[in-house]
Protein backbone atom coordinates (compact mmCIF):
# COMPACT_ATOMS: atom_id res chain seq x y z
CA UNK A 1 0.00 0.00 0.00
CA UNK A 2 1.37 3.41 -0.95
CA UNK A 3 0.83 6.10 1.68
CA UNK A 4 1.32 9.62 0.28
CA UNK A 5 3.28 12.21 2.18
CA UNK A 6 1.86 13.56 5.40
CA UNK A 7 3.52 16.76 6.51
CA UNK A 8 2.41 17.97 9.89
CA UNK A 9 3.61 18.68 13.35
CA UNK A 10 1.85 18.31 16.69
CA UNK A 11 2.72 21.23 18.97
CA UNK A 12 0.10 20.52 21.62
CA UNK A 13 -1.75 17.23 21.68
CA UNK A 14 -5.02 18.68 22.94
CA UNK A 15 -5.11 21.12 19.98
CA UNK A 16 -4.22 18.69 17.21
CA UNK A 17 -6.57 18.94 14.22
CA UNK A 18 -6.74 18.27 10.52
CA UNK A 19 -5.47 21.81 9.86
CA UNK A 20 -2.01 20.46 10.64
CA UNK A 21 -2.14 18.19 7.60
CA UNK A 22 -0.37 20.08 4.82
CA UNK A 23 -0.89 17.50 2.07
CA UNK A 24 -4.50 16.53 1.42
CA UNK A 25 -3.74 13.47 -0.72
CA UNK A 26 -3.34 11.00 2.13
CA UNK A 27 -5.81 8.10 2.37
CA UNK A 28 -8.63 9.04 4.73
CA UNK A 29 -8.06 6.21 7.18
CA UNK A 30 -4.34 6.91 7.59
CA UNK A 31 -5.01 10.59 8.19
CA UNK A 32 -7.83 9.74 10.59
CA UNK A 33 -5.58 7.31 12.43
CA UNK A 34 -2.93 9.95 12.95
CA UNK A 35 -5.34 12.73 13.90
CA UNK A 36 -7.22 10.45 16.25
CA UNK A 37 -3.98 9.47 17.95
CA UNK A 38 -3.04 13.08 18.57
CA UNK A 39 -6.51 14.18 19.66
CA UNK A 40 -6.87 11.66 22.48
CA UNK A 41 -3.33 11.80 23.85
CA UNK A 42 -3.76 14.76 26.17
CA UNK A 43 -6.87 13.35 27.84
CA UNK A 44 -5.29 9.93 28.18
CA UNK A 45 -2.18 11.39 29.82
CA UNK A 46 -4.32 13.04 32.46
CA UNK A 47 -6.06 9.72 33.13
CA UNK A 48 -2.64 8.20 33.71
CA UNK A 49 -1.60 11.05 35.97
CA UNK A 50 1.09 12.50 33.71
CA UNK A 51 1.57 15.67 31.75
CA UNK A 52 1.95 15.25 27.99
CA UNK A 53 5.64 16.15 27.94
CA UNK A 54 8.16 14.05 29.81
CA UNK A 55 11.52 15.54 30.71
CA UNK A 56 14.59 13.35 30.43
CA UNK A 57 16.34 13.45 33.80
CA UNK A 58 19.34 11.31 34.62
CA UNK A 59 19.06 9.86 38.11
CA UNK A 60 22.05 9.56 40.43
CA UNK A 61 22.55 6.54 42.66
CA UNK A 62 24.42 7.27 45.88
CA UNK A 63 26.38 4.92 48.10
CA UNK A 64 27.94 5.80 51.44
CA UNK A 65 31.35 4.16 51.61
CA UNK A 66 31.34 4.26 55.40
CA UNK A 67 28.44 1.80 55.51
CA UNK A 68 28.50 -1.84 54.49
CA UNK A 69 27.25 -2.31 50.95
CA UNK A 70 24.78 -5.01 50.03
CA UNK A 71 25.28 -7.06 46.87
CA UNK A 72 22.22 -5.44 45.28
CA UNK A 73 23.70 -1.99 45.89
CA UNK A 74 26.86 -2.95 44.01
CA UNK A 75 24.84 -4.49 41.20
CA UNK A 76 23.16 -1.12 40.64
CA UNK A 77 26.58 0.31 39.81
CA UNK A 78 27.09 -2.31 37.11
CA UNK A 79 23.69 -2.17 35.43
CA UNK A 80 21.73 0.66 33.83
CA UNK A 81 19.08 1.95 36.23
CA UNK A 82 17.89 5.34 34.97
CA UNK A 83 15.55 4.17 32.27
CA UNK A 84 13.87 1.37 30.39
CA UNK A 85 13.10 0.68 26.74
CA UNK A 86 9.79 0.05 25.05
CA UNK A 87 11.48 -2.34 22.60
CA UNK A 88 14.64 -4.47 22.52
CA UNK A 89 15.14 -3.85 26.24
CA UNK A 90 17.25 -6.91 26.99
CA UNK A 91 19.80 -5.97 24.35
CA UNK A 92 19.84 -2.32 25.42
CA UNK A 93 20.55 -3.29 29.03
CA UNK A 94 23.25 -5.76 28.01
CA UNK A 95 24.95 -2.99 26.04
CA UNK A 96 25.16 -0.90 29.21
CA UNK A 97 26.19 -3.54 31.74
CA UNK A 98 29.78 -3.54 33.03
CA UNK A 99 31.17 -5.34 36.07
CA UNK A 100 34.22 -3.89 37.80
CA UNK A 101 35.93 -3.75 41.18
CA UNK A 102 34.42 -0.79 43.01
CA UNK A 103 36.93 -0.83 45.88
CA UNK A 104 39.93 -0.83 43.55
CA UNK A 105 38.46 2.01 41.47
CA UNK A 106 37.96 4.08 44.61
CA UNK A 107 41.45 3.26 45.89
CA UNK A 108 43.01 4.28 42.58
CA UNK A 109 41.14 7.59 42.67
CA UNK A 110 42.07 8.25 46.29
CA UNK A 111 45.75 7.60 45.58
CA UNK A 112 45.77 10.62 43.28
CA UNK A 113 45.81 12.83 46.37
CA UNK A 114 47.76 10.96 49.08
CA UNK A 115 48.33 7.54 50.55
CA UNK A 116 46.06 8.45 53.47
CA UNK A 117 43.13 9.70 51.39
CA UNK A 118 40.00 7.57 51.35
CA UNK A 119 36.96 7.62 49.07
CA UNK A 120 33.88 8.20 51.22
CA UNK A 121 31.05 8.59 48.74
CA UNK A 122 30.10 7.38 45.26
CA UNK A 123 27.44 9.06 43.14
CA UNK A 124 26.43 7.20 40.00
CA UNK A 125 25.86 9.60 37.10
CA UNK A 126 24.11 7.56 34.45
CA UNK A 127 25.38 7.87 30.90
CA UNK A 128 24.30 6.38 27.60
CA UNK A 129 27.71 5.14 26.46
CA UNK A 130 29.75 5.26 29.66
CA UNK A 131 29.20 4.77 33.33
CA UNK A 132 30.21 7.89 35.21
CA UNK A 133 30.73 8.20 38.95
CA UNK A 134 31.41 11.19 41.15
CA UNK A 135 33.90 10.02 43.77
CA UNK A 136 34.18 12.20 46.87
CA UNK A 137 37.21 11.84 49.17
CA UNK A 138 37.40 12.32 52.92
CA UNK A 139 39.44 15.50 52.36
CA UNK A 140 36.77 17.01 50.09
CA UNK A 141 38.48 16.34 46.76
CA UNK A 142 36.26 15.07 43.94
CA UNK A 143 37.00 12.99 40.85
CA UNK A 144 34.89 11.77 37.94
CA UNK A 145 35.44 8.12 37.00
CA UNK A 146 34.30 6.99 33.55
CA UNK A 147 33.94 3.35 32.50
CA UNK A 148 32.95 2.71 28.86
CA UNK A 149 29.93 0.51 28.14
CA UNK A 150 29.97 -2.19 25.44
CA UNK A 151 27.92 0.04 23.10
CA UNK A 152 30.49 2.84 23.00
CA UNK A 153 32.67 1.45 20.22
CA UNK A 154 35.85 -0.59 19.80
CA UNK A 155 37.34 -1.66 23.17
CA UNK A 156 40.69 -0.13 24.13
CA UNK A 157 40.71 2.26 21.16
CA UNK A 158 37.73 4.26 22.41
CA UNK A 159 39.33 4.90 25.80
CA UNK A 160 42.74 5.70 24.32
CA UNK A 161 41.25 8.11 21.80
CA UNK A 162 39.16 9.95 24.40
CA UNK A 163 42.23 10.41 26.59
CA UNK A 164 44.32 11.71 23.70
CA UNK A 165 41.53 14.04 22.53
CA UNK A 166 41.16 15.64 25.97
CA UNK A 167 44.92 16.08 26.34
CA UNK A 168 45.23 17.55 22.85
CA UNK A 169 42.37 20.00 23.32
CA UNK A 170 43.64 21.21 26.70
CA UNK A 171 46.91 22.19 25.05
CA UNK A 172 45.40 23.85 21.98
CA UNK A 173 42.19 25.71 22.85
CA UNK A 174 41.36 28.16 25.63
CA UNK A 175 37.89 26.74 26.30
CA UNK A 176 38.22 24.47 29.36
CA UNK A 177 37.89 20.70 28.94
CA UNK A 178 38.36 18.14 31.76
CA UNK A 179 41.90 17.22 32.76
CA UNK A 180 42.81 13.53 32.64
CA UNK A 181 44.32 12.41 35.96
CA UNK A 182 44.80 8.71 35.31
CA UNK A 183 43.53 6.07 32.92
CA UNK A 184 43.85 2.47 31.80
CA UNK A 185 42.68 0.79 28.60
CA UNK A 186 43.58 -2.66 29.91
CA UNK A 187 40.45 -4.55 31.03
CA UNK A 188 42.70 -6.89 33.06
CA UNK A 189 43.83 -4.08 35.37
CA UNK A 190 42.95 -4.19 39.12
CA UNK A 191 39.69 -2.32 38.43
CA UNK A 192 38.67 -5.08 36.02
CA UNK A 193 37.56 -2.67 33.29
CA UNK A 194 38.83 0.19 31.18
CA UNK A 195 38.50 3.51 33.00
CA UNK A 196 39.42 7.18 32.97
CA UNK A 197 39.76 9.38 36.05
CA UNK A 198 39.16 13.01 35.12
CA UNK A 199 38.67 16.38 36.72
CA UNK A 200 35.18 17.25 37.91
CA UNK A 201 34.10 20.22 35.81
CA UNK A 202 33.24 23.26 37.86
CA UNK A 203 29.97 25.14 37.56
CA UNK A 204 26.50 23.99 36.60
CA UNK A 205 25.01 22.71 33.33
CA UNK A 206 23.91 25.53 31.05
CA UNK A 207 20.50 23.83 30.98
CA UNK A 208 19.93 25.20 34.48
CA UNK A 209 20.73 28.79 33.49
CA UNK A 210 19.83 29.26 29.82
CA UNK A 211 16.29 30.48 30.46
CA UNK A 212 17.59 33.10 32.90
CA UNK A 213 19.74 34.79 30.24
CA UNK A 214 18.48 37.82 28.37
CA UNK A 215 18.98 38.25 24.62
CA UNK A 216 22.28 40.13 24.89
CA UNK A 217 23.68 37.54 27.30
CA UNK A 218 22.68 34.72 24.96
CA UNK A 219 24.39 36.43 22.03
CA UNK A 220 27.49 36.91 24.16
CA UNK A 221 27.46 33.22 25.02
CA UNK A 222 27.00 32.21 21.37
CA UNK A 223 30.06 34.35 20.57
CA UNK A 224 32.11 32.24 22.99
CA UNK A 225 30.96 29.01 21.38
CA UNK A 226 31.92 30.50 18.03
CA UNK A 227 35.37 31.38 19.41
CA UNK A 228 35.88 27.76 20.46
CA UNK A 229 34.76 26.45 17.07
CA UNK A 230 37.04 28.91 15.28
CA UNK A 231 39.96 27.60 17.33
CA UNK A 232 38.99 24.01 16.50
CA UNK A 233 38.68 24.80 12.79
CA UNK A 234 42.23 26.14 12.75
CA UNK A 235 43.64 22.89 14.15
CA UNK A 236 43.94 21.18 10.78
CA UNK A 237 45.16 17.61 11.13
CA UNK A 238 47.06 15.37 8.67
CA UNK A 239 44.43 12.65 8.22
CA UNK A 240 40.95 11.46 9.13
CA UNK A 241 40.59 9.19 12.15
CA UNK A 242 40.87 9.10 15.92
CA UNK A 243 43.37 11.12 17.91
CA UNK A 244 45.78 8.91 19.87
CA UNK A 245 48.86 9.20 22.02
CA UNK A 246 51.90 7.91 20.14
CA UNK A 247 52.92 5.81 23.14
CA UNK A 248 49.56 4.07 23.54
CA UNK A 249 48.46 3.24 19.98
CA UNK A 250 49.30 -0.32 19.02
CA UNK A 251 51.91 -0.72 16.28
CA UNK A 252 49.41 -2.86 14.37
CA UNK A 253 47.43 0.26 13.43
CA UNK A 254 48.46 2.89 10.88
CA UNK A 255 49.40 6.26 12.32
CA UNK A 256 49.93 9.75 10.96
CA UNK A 257 52.06 12.13 13.03
CA UNK A 258 50.94 15.72 13.54
CA UNK A 259 52.96 18.65 12.26
CA UNK A 260 55.70 19.98 14.51
CA UNK A 261 53.74 23.21 14.83
CA UNK A 262 50.74 21.39 16.32
CA UNK A 263 52.74 18.79 18.23
CA UNK A 264 56.31 19.90 18.98
CA UNK A 265 56.85 17.04 21.46
CA UNK A 266 55.58 14.35 19.07
CA UNK A 267 52.96 13.16 21.57
CA UNK A 268 49.98 12.65 19.29
CA UNK A 269 49.03 10.94 16.06
CA UNK A 270 45.97 10.21 13.94
CA UNK A 271 45.09 6.53 14.00
CA UNK A 272 42.27 4.26 12.97
CA UNK A 273 38.80 5.76 12.63
CA UNK A 274 36.27 4.87 15.33
CA UNK A 275 33.40 6.06 13.15
CA UNK A 276 32.18 5.01 9.72
CA UNK A 277 33.32 7.97 7.62
CA UNK A 278 35.77 7.03 4.89
CA UNK A 279 35.86 6.37 1.18
CA UNK A 280 36.02 2.72 2.21
CA UNK A 281 32.67 2.90 4.07
CA UNK A 282 30.67 1.21 1.27
CA UNK A 283 33.23 -1.60 1.08
CA UNK A 284 33.08 -2.15 4.84
CA UNK A 285 29.29 -2.18 4.80
CA UNK A 286 29.27 -4.64 1.89
CA UNK A 287 31.53 -6.91 3.93
CA UNK A 288 29.03 -6.70 6.81
CA UNK A 289 26.20 -7.63 4.46
CA UNK A 290 28.10 -10.78 3.46
CA UNK A 291 29.15 -11.68 7.00
CA UNK A 292 25.83 -10.94 8.73
CA UNK A 293 23.24 -11.33 6.01
CA UNK A 294 20.45 -12.52 8.31
CA UNK A 295 20.87 -9.54 10.64
CA UNK A 296 20.95 -7.11 7.72
CA UNK A 297 17.81 -8.67 6.22
CA UNK A 298 16.03 -8.23 9.56
CA UNK A 299 17.09 -4.59 9.75
CA UNK A 300 15.94 -3.94 6.18
CA UNK A 301 12.43 -5.24 6.84
CA UNK A 302 11.90 -4.44 10.51
CA UNK A 303 9.06 -2.04 9.69
CA UNK A 304 7.54 -3.70 6.65
CA UNK A 305 9.81 -1.98 4.13
CA UNK A 306 9.90 -4.98 1.73
CA UNK A 307 13.56 -4.48 0.83
CA UNK A 308 16.18 -7.00 -0.26
CA UNK A 309 19.83 -7.53 0.56
CA UNK A 310 20.53 -7.62 -3.18
CA UNK A 311 19.14 -4.12 -3.63
CA UNK A 312 21.11 -2.82 -0.65
CA UNK A 313 24.32 -4.32 -2.05
CA UNK A 314 23.63 -2.80 -5.47
CA UNK A 315 23.15 0.67 -3.97
CA UNK A 316 26.36 0.36 -1.95
CA UNK A 317 28.26 -0.64 -5.09
CA UNK A 318 26.88 2.45 -6.84
CA UNK A 319 28.06 4.54 -3.90
CA UNK A 320 31.55 3.07 -4.29
CA UNK A 321 31.59 4.38 -7.85
CA UNK A 322 30.76 8.01 -7.03
CA UNK A 323 32.56 8.77 -3.75
CA UNK A 324 36.00 9.16 -5.37
CA UNK A 325 34.59 11.66 -7.87
CA UNK A 326 32.77 13.58 -5.14
CA UNK A 327 35.89 13.72 -2.99
CA UNK A 328 37.75 15.50 -5.81
CA UNK A 329 35.10 18.17 -6.37
CA UNK A 330 36.65 21.65 -5.76
CA UNK A 331 33.93 22.70 -3.30
CA UNK A 332 34.28 19.45 -1.36
CA UNK A 333 38.06 19.85 -1.31
CA UNK A 334 37.66 23.40 -0.01
CA UNK A 335 35.79 22.10 3.07
CA UNK A 336 37.61 18.79 3.48
CA UNK A 337 40.18 19.87 6.08
CA UNK A 338 40.53 17.32 8.89
CA UNK A 339 39.25 18.84 12.13
CA UNK A 340 38.14 17.74 15.59
CA UNK A 341 34.64 18.85 16.55
CA UNK A 342 32.08 18.54 19.34
CA UNK A 343 29.07 17.13 17.51
CA UNK A 344 26.66 16.99 20.47
CA UNK A 345 26.84 20.45 21.99
CA UNK A 346 23.59 20.48 23.97
CA UNK A 347 22.92 22.49 27.13
CA UNK A 348 23.83 19.56 29.38
CA UNK A 349 27.36 19.26 27.98
CA UNK A 350 28.24 22.90 28.65
CA UNK A 351 29.08 23.93 32.22
CA UNK A 352 28.95 27.59 33.21
CA UNK A 353 29.63 29.78 36.21
CA UNK A 354 26.50 29.94 38.42
CA UNK A 355 27.00 33.67 39.08
CA UNK A 356 27.85 34.55 35.47
CA UNK A 357 26.32 32.00 33.08
CA UNK A 358 28.06 33.61 30.11
CA UNK A 359 31.37 32.27 31.48
CA UNK A 360 32.15 28.74 30.29
CA UNK A 361 33.66 26.56 33.01
CA UNK A 362 34.01 23.50 30.82
CA UNK A 363 32.78 21.46 27.86
CA UNK A 364 32.31 17.74 28.54
CA UNK A 365 31.52 14.57 26.55
CA UNK A 366 34.25 14.52 23.89
CA UNK A 367 34.12 10.73 23.80
CA UNK A 368 33.00 10.42 20.19
CA UNK A 369 35.11 13.29 18.83
CA UNK A 370 37.56 12.47 16.07
CA UNK A 371 39.24 14.06 13.09
CA UNK A 372 36.87 14.18 10.11
CA UNK A 373 36.22 16.48 7.13
CA UNK A 374 34.91 19.90 8.06
CA UNK A 375 31.94 19.41 5.72
CA UNK A 376 30.89 16.48 7.93
CA UNK A 377 31.67 18.20 11.25
CA UNK A 378 30.28 21.71 10.73
CA UNK A 379 26.73 22.17 12.00
CA UNK A 380 24.58 24.31 14.25
CA UNK A 381 25.37 23.51 17.90
CA UNK A 382 22.65 21.24 19.24
CA UNK A 383 21.18 23.94 21.49
CA UNK A 384 20.93 26.25 18.48
CA UNK A 385 19.50 23.73 16.01
CA UNK A 386 17.03 25.70 13.86
CA UNK A 387 13.31 24.92 14.02
CA UNK A 388 11.47 23.44 11.06
CA UNK A 389 10.95 25.93 8.28
CA UNK A 390 14.17 27.83 9.04
CA UNK A 391 15.66 29.55 5.98
CA UNK A 392 19.37 30.19 5.64
CA UNK A 393 20.53 33.57 4.38
CA UNK A 394 20.06 37.19 5.36
CA UNK A 395 16.30 37.00 5.86
CA UNK A 396 15.13 37.84 9.39
CA UNK A 397 12.97 35.15 11.07
CA UNK A 398 9.38 36.27 11.61
CA UNK A 399 6.33 35.02 13.45
CA UNK A 400 3.76 33.10 11.36
CA UNK A 401 1.50 35.29 9.22
CA UNK A 402 -1.55 33.83 10.96
CA UNK A 403 -0.09 34.40 14.44
CA UNK A 404 -3.07 36.50 15.60
CA UNK A 405 -5.45 33.66 14.68
CA UNK A 406 -3.64 31.06 16.78
CA UNK A 407 -4.80 29.88 20.17
CA UNK A 408 -2.87 30.72 23.37
CA UNK A 409 -0.82 27.50 23.40
CA UNK A 410 -0.05 27.70 19.70
CA UNK A 411 1.04 31.32 20.10
CA UNK A 412 3.39 30.34 22.91
CA UNK A 413 4.88 27.58 20.77
CA UNK A 414 5.28 29.97 17.82
CA UNK A 415 7.06 32.51 20.05
CA UNK A 416 9.48 29.86 21.31
CA UNK A 417 10.30 28.76 17.77
CA UNK A 418 10.73 32.38 16.71
CA UNK A 419 13.24 32.99 19.51
CA UNK A 420 15.16 29.84 18.57
CA UNK A 421 15.17 30.86 14.90
CA UNK A 422 16.58 34.30 15.78
CA UNK A 423 19.34 32.71 17.89
CA UNK A 424 20.13 30.28 15.07
CA UNK A 425 20.27 33.22 12.66
CA UNK A 426 22.67 35.08 14.95
CA UNK A 427 24.96 32.04 14.97
CA UNK A 428 24.73 31.67 11.18
CA UNK A 429 25.51 35.33 10.47
CA UNK A 430 28.32 35.37 13.04
CA UNK A 431 29.81 32.28 11.40
CA UNK A 432 29.74 34.02 8.06
CA UNK A 433 31.51 37.05 9.49
CA UNK A 434 34.06 35.40 11.80
CA UNK A 435 34.41 31.73 10.82
CA UNK A 436 34.00 31.62 7.05
CA UNK A 437 35.39 28.08 6.58
CA UNK A 438 32.70 26.67 8.86
CA UNK A 439 30.01 28.79 7.20
CA UNK A 440 31.10 27.54 3.76
CA UNK A 441 31.11 23.94 4.97
CA UNK A 442 27.57 24.31 6.33
CA UNK A 443 26.46 25.91 3.05
CA UNK A 444 27.94 23.15 0.87
CA UNK A 445 25.35 21.63 -1.48
CA UNK A 446 23.77 18.67 0.29
CA UNK A 447 24.13 16.57 -2.86
CA UNK A 448 27.90 16.80 -2.54
CA UNK A 449 28.37 15.85 1.11
CA UNK A 450 25.38 13.69 1.99
CA UNK A 451 26.56 10.54 0.17
CA UNK A 452 29.50 10.30 2.58
CA UNK A 453 27.02 9.80 5.43
CA UNK A 454 24.62 7.35 3.74
CA UNK A 455 26.59 4.11 3.79
CA UNK A 456 24.88 2.63 6.84
CA UNK A 457 21.23 1.84 7.44
CA UNK A 458 19.25 4.34 9.54
CA UNK A 459 17.42 3.10 12.63
CA UNK A 460 14.25 2.44 10.62
CA UNK A 461 16.13 0.31 8.09
CA UNK A 462 14.89 2.24 5.05
CA UNK A 463 16.94 2.38 1.85
CA UNK A 464 15.16 5.58 0.80
CA UNK A 465 17.84 8.04 2.07
CA UNK A 466 20.66 6.10 0.41
CA UNK A 467 18.81 5.65 -2.89
CA UNK A 468 17.54 9.23 -2.89
CA UNK A 469 21.08 10.52 -2.52
CA UNK A 470 22.25 8.40 -5.45
CA UNK A 471 19.34 9.46 -7.67
CA UNK A 472 20.02 13.14 -7.07
CA UNK A 473 23.71 12.71 -7.87
CA UNK A 474 22.99 10.79 -11.07
CA UNK A 475 20.40 13.33 -12.27
CA UNK A 476 22.44 16.43 -11.39
CA UNK A 477 25.90 15.10 -12.25
CA UNK A 478 26.72 17.77 -14.83
CA UNK A 479 24.98 20.59 -12.94
CA UNK A 480 27.12 19.78 -9.90
CA UNK A 481 30.25 20.19 -12.00
CA UNK A 482 31.42 16.60 -11.67
CA UNK A 483 33.85 15.30 -14.27
CA UNK A 484 32.95 12.89 -17.10
CA UNK A 485 29.43 11.46 -16.73
CA UNK A 486 27.53 9.59 -14.05
CA UNK A 487 28.63 5.92 -13.90
CA UNK A 488 24.99 4.82 -13.54
CA UNK A 489 21.39 5.88 -14.08
CA UNK A 490 18.07 4.73 -12.62
CA UNK A 491 15.39 3.60 -15.09
CA UNK A 492 11.74 4.71 -15.02
CA UNK A 493 10.55 1.63 -13.17
CA UNK A 494 13.17 2.13 -10.45
CA UNK A 495 12.29 5.80 -10.10
CA UNK A 496 8.57 5.02 -9.87
CA UNK A 497 9.17 2.43 -7.17
CA UNK A 498 11.41 4.88 -5.34
CA UNK A 499 8.69 7.56 -5.37
CA UNK A 500 6.26 5.09 -3.83
CA UNK A 501 8.78 4.16 -1.14
CA UNK A 502 9.46 7.84 -0.43
CA UNK A 503 5.77 8.31 0.32
CA UNK A 504 5.78 5.31 2.65
CA UNK A 505 9.00 6.54 4.27
CA UNK A 506 7.72 10.08 4.87
CA UNK A 507 4.45 8.78 6.31
CA UNK A 508 6.37 6.48 8.62
CA UNK A 509 8.55 9.35 9.81
CA UNK A 510 5.45 11.43 10.55
CA UNK A 511 3.98 8.61 12.61
CA UNK A 512 7.29 8.09 14.41
CA UNK A 513 7.62 11.79 15.20
CA UNK A 514 4.10 11.94 16.62
CA UNK A 515 4.50 8.84 18.78
CA UNK A 516 7.97 9.81 20.02
CA UNK A 517 6.88 13.33 20.94
CA UNK A 518 3.82 12.22 22.86
CA UNK A 519 5.52 9.32 24.65
CA UNK A 520 8.52 11.49 25.49
CA UNK A 521 11.02 9.09 23.97
CA UNK A 522 13.61 8.78 21.20
CA UNK A 523 14.23 6.36 18.35
CA UNK A 524 15.35 3.64 20.76
CA UNK A 525 12.18 3.85 22.88
CA UNK A 526 13.97 5.03 26.04
CA UNK A 527 11.70 5.97 28.95
CA UNK A 528 12.65 7.28 32.39
CA UNK A 529 12.22 4.55 35.00
CA UNK A 530 9.72 6.59 37.02
CA UNK A 531 7.45 7.01 34.00
CA UNK A 532 7.74 3.49 32.63
CA UNK A 533 4.41 2.08 33.77
CA UNK A 534 2.29 4.98 32.54
CA UNK A 535 4.14 5.41 29.24
CA UNK A 536 3.97 1.68 28.56
CA UNK A 537 0.20 1.79 29.08
CA UNK A 538 -0.12 4.78 26.78
CA UNK A 539 1.91 3.04 24.08
CA UNK A 540 -0.39 -0.01 24.21
CA UNK A 541 -3.47 2.19 24.13
CA UNK A 542 -2.33 4.17 21.09
CA UNK A 543 -1.12 1.04 19.33
CA UNK A 544 -4.51 -0.66 19.68
CA UNK A 545 -6.27 2.45 18.45
CA UNK A 546 -3.95 2.69 15.45
CA UNK A 547 -4.52 -0.96 14.53
CA UNK A 548 -8.29 -0.49 14.80
CA UNK A 549 -8.34 2.68 12.70
CA UNK A 550 -6.14 1.18 9.97
CA UNK A 551 -8.12 -2.08 9.80
CA UNK A 552 -10.05 -1.03 6.67
CA UNK A 553 -6.83 -0.27 4.78
CA UNK A 554 -4.37 -2.99 5.77
CA UNK A 555 -4.17 -6.11 7.92
CA UNK A 556 -3.41 -5.93 11.62
CA UNK A 557 -0.10 -7.67 10.96
CA UNK A 558 0.92 -5.07 8.37
CA UNK A 559 -0.15 -2.18 10.60
CA UNK A 560 1.80 -3.65 13.52
CA UNK A 561 5.00 -3.54 11.46
CA UNK A 562 4.58 0.22 11.06
CA UNK A 563 4.21 0.96 14.76
CA UNK A 564 7.53 2.25 16.18
CA UNK A 565 7.33 0.49 19.55
CA UNK A 566 5.46 -2.79 19.28
CA UNK A 567 4.02 -3.67 22.73
CA UNK A 568 5.43 -6.88 24.17
CA UNK A 569 2.02 -8.53 24.44
CA UNK A 570 0.82 -7.43 20.98
From TrEMBL:
Q: Which residues form the Aminoglycoside phosphotransferase domain?
A: 125-373
* UniProt cross-references to InterPro entries, sorted A to Z: Aminoglycoside_PTrfase, Kinase-like_dom_sf, Mito_inheritance_9
Q: List UniProt keywords, sorted A-Z.
A: Mitochondrion, Transit peptide
Coiled-coil regions, chain positions: none
Annotated compartments:
Mitochondrion
One GO cellular component term noted in the UniProt record for this chain: mitochondrion
Q: Which domain of life is it from?
A: Eukaryota
- Keyword check for Protein biosynthesis: no
SUPFAM superfamilies per record:
Protein kinase-like (PK-like)
> Which protein family is named in the record?
Belongs to the AIM9 family.
Q: What is this protein called?
A: Altered inheritance of mitochondria protein 9, mitochondrial
Identify the taxonomic lineage of the organism of origin.
Answer: Eukaryota, Fungi, Dikarya, Ascomycota, Pezizomycotina
